[in-house]
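Closing statement on the 2-acetamido-2-deoxy-beta-D-glucopyranose sub-project.
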Amino acid sequence: MYPWHSRLVCALQLASSVLAASFAPRHDNSHPATHCKAVPGTAGWPSPRDWTALNESLAGRLLQPPPPGAVCHPGKKSYNAAECQAVRAAWSSYEFHANNPISVDWDQWANESCLPQEGAPCSGEGYPVFVINATEVRHVQLGVQFARKHNIRLVIKSSGHDFLGRSNAPNSLSIWTHNMKWIETHDSFRPSRCKVTIDHTAVTVGAGAHMWDIYSALDALNQTIVGGGGKTVSVGGYLTGAGHSLLSARYGLAADQVLEMEVVTPTGEIVTANECQNTDLFWAMRGGGGSTFGVITSVTMKTFPTPEIEHVLMGVVTLDVANTRAIFDMIAYVLSQFPSLGDQGLSGYAYFSPAIATSSPDGSNVTVAGLFMVGILQNSTPEAMRALWDPVFAHVNATWPGMFQALYQPRSYPSFLAYFAEIYDRSPAGRSQYVGSRLLDRAALTDDLAKSAAAWERFSNASVASAFLVSGKGVFDAKPRGCDGNAVLPAWRKAYVHATLGVVAPPLNPAGRAAARKQVQERVAALRELAPGMGAYMNEAAFDEPNYRHEFWGSNYERLLRIKRAIDPDDVLWCTPCVGNERWEQVGGRLCRVD
Ligand SMILES: Cc1cc2nc3c(=O)[nH]c(=O)nc-3n(C[C@H](O)[C@H](O)[C@H](O)COP(=O)(O)OP(=O)(O)OC[C@H]3O[C@@H](n4cnc5c(N)ncnc54)[C@H](O)[C@@H]3O)c2cc1C
Ligand SMILES: *[C@@H]1O[C@H](CO)[C@@H](O)[C@H](O)[C@H]1NC(C)=O
Ligand SMILES: *[C@@H]1O[C@H](CO)[C@@H](O)[C@H](O)[C@H]1NC(C)=O
Ligand SMILES: *[C@@H]1O[C@H](CO)[C@@H](O)[C@H](O)[C@H]1NC(C)=O
Ligand SMILES: *[C@@H]1O[C@H](CO)[C@@H](O)[C@H](O)[C@H]1NC(C)=O
Ligand SMILES: *[C@@H]1O[C@H](CO)[C@@H](O)[C@H](O)[C@H]1NC(C)=O
Ligand SMILES: *[C@@H]1O[C@H](CO)[C@@H](O)[C@H](O)[C@H]1NC(C)=O
Ligand SMILES: *[C@@H]1O[C@H](CO)[C@@H](O)[C@H](O)[C@H]1NC(C)=O
């Protein structure tokens, strides 16, 4: 109604927050803090009585779980041959790691310290020492206060999906938010202490709610959220990182939908962050990253009417796998169409490779090369979907006559949930996998196809890589609540494609892990050179991305760092690669100050 007025209010709010942050007391020297965080067996580590007292204050919710793989190790107290079989069978499932208080999806982040394999070492040294099975906000608060008081490394684990290892650490106290699963829907929502009511449907979920829980609850109301592609992804890590979705092209990123968060700050206060209070925190926690500025206990976000989904599984493939030049020229051409296909409403996940082992209808093994995509349109028709692809197929046939076959399997679904139930991410967990990624804008995809073909070939390195079309107009035009938007990496606002890869290292093989890391770096470098001004989506990027502060947060980094210093002067929360981690480093299993 009065745009000048709201703009003025915003300008004042921003100015005062910048001033407040720059006048924030400098705590750097106020705690002549010990050099390292306490670990078991050192004088600083809390006594058994301290732990018992913590457990009592938590009504007995403090756990000291054995490593999940210990059931497979005859020397261990929890050894159990039958359970070992079950754990081994479940090790590749996301549910297993999410439902276990300390297990994480990717073995290297627990230092492969107790794999469920006979003959493997089982020290459990990669895991937290104690865990709070939190079900209430108060449990989170008690955990944060205890870690702060006793100078213990603190980690937050929800699902344990993190590709960068941020939800686990050795010698730590972990707060496990998995059981904070409440879900409450709203026809409209008034953020606490705001005068405005936001005239939009919304949902408030506890920090442990999974995508599947939320999608299912909302489907009963014919609604959905901008959510992720894995059933067990939880809001804590997803939203704080940005959160891409098949619905993002229309509505924006998940972080753009947030209306309010309840947060336990690193000093142990329970606060509400929204556009009217704790606005710096509200800004930072939507894109600044997980386990850095506080612990989310619940979050309220917009919901949308569920779309009908028009789906296609399409492919452009060839048996002529030796002709890599033509294969990558074709791949670069199809990917160059993504900006225009995205502008027409398409989103989806594409996978490409110069060599995919598969079986032909007669059961024989064949190797094919090319690109596949699962793509969707919202509230559309099979004809509209086909019309998007016909010109692409025609161009491929005209350019490389007879070389490629088109594969095209359309299908319609009545709701997002009906669709999601079939296509959710089923890739296996339970291995040491290193990922890498890059965001690509229109220019990188379309300007110079000879150059992009060479980059895609290097990025693929003879194996499968992916290009997710999960951004577009909705992300570019998003209007997140609050004066100054949110802390999502600005490159997202012009990216069409989030290109990703994963390299699996052999177990218990340090040289193999080093080679996998190196391979990720070399492959990602191809796209960094193709799109030097962009960046990478922190939740699905290489943990050792060079210059990650710039690549994950861009021009937001300085402000994020000021907010981190103001809200967490003592570095109660610390992770890497995370905002404000400069003052500490990991030395073996310890976290110590940088001199
Ligand atoms: C199968 C699969 C599918 C995926 N699909 C998508 C997708 O479609 N789109 C997308 O954007 N990403 C996707 N991701 C990536 C996902 O966003 C990240 O793995 C994210 O870190 C998961 O968050 P989490 O809370 O479930 O995991 P966790 O590993 O438990 O936590 C991740 C990080 O967030 C912190 N954290 C967790 N809870 C809280 C909290 N309550 N408060 C503060 N910090 C917290 C943790 O400490 C850690 O730093 C997918 C991942 C997997 C494994
Ligand atoms: C915490 O207390 C409960 C209930 O008394 C007990 O079962 C549990 O073992 C205790 N936890 C620890 C780590 O001692
Ligand atoms: C954690 O708490 C929930 C809720 O009380 C309970 O059902 C579950 O068994 C607990 N988990 C563990 C591992 O103790
Ligand atoms: C959801 O949509 C179905 C089909 O259109 C309709 O029958 C049902 O009443 C709707 N439910 C709600 C809660 O709106
Ligand atoms: C196809 O490959 C699989 C896995 O490599 C192998 O087990 C199978 O025997 C092969 N089938 C044929 C028909 O060659
Ligand atoms: C090219 O045309 C042939 C013959 O019409 C067809 O079989 C093939 O699928 C087409 N390829 C593509 C990529 O459209
Ligand atoms: C794959 O990477 C290796 C190691 O960097 C490199 O030697 C090789 O040329 C690459 N292969 C392709 C097909 O790009
Ligand atoms: C991981 O394990 C190795 C021994 O297998 C050990 O040297 C190293 O310090 C451990 N790392 C951490 C972070 O605990």
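Residues 55, 60, 62-64 surround 2-acetamido-2-deoxy-beta-D-glucopyranose (ligand 2) (CB under 6 Å). With this model delivered, the sub-project is considered complete and its resources will be redirected to Aim 3.
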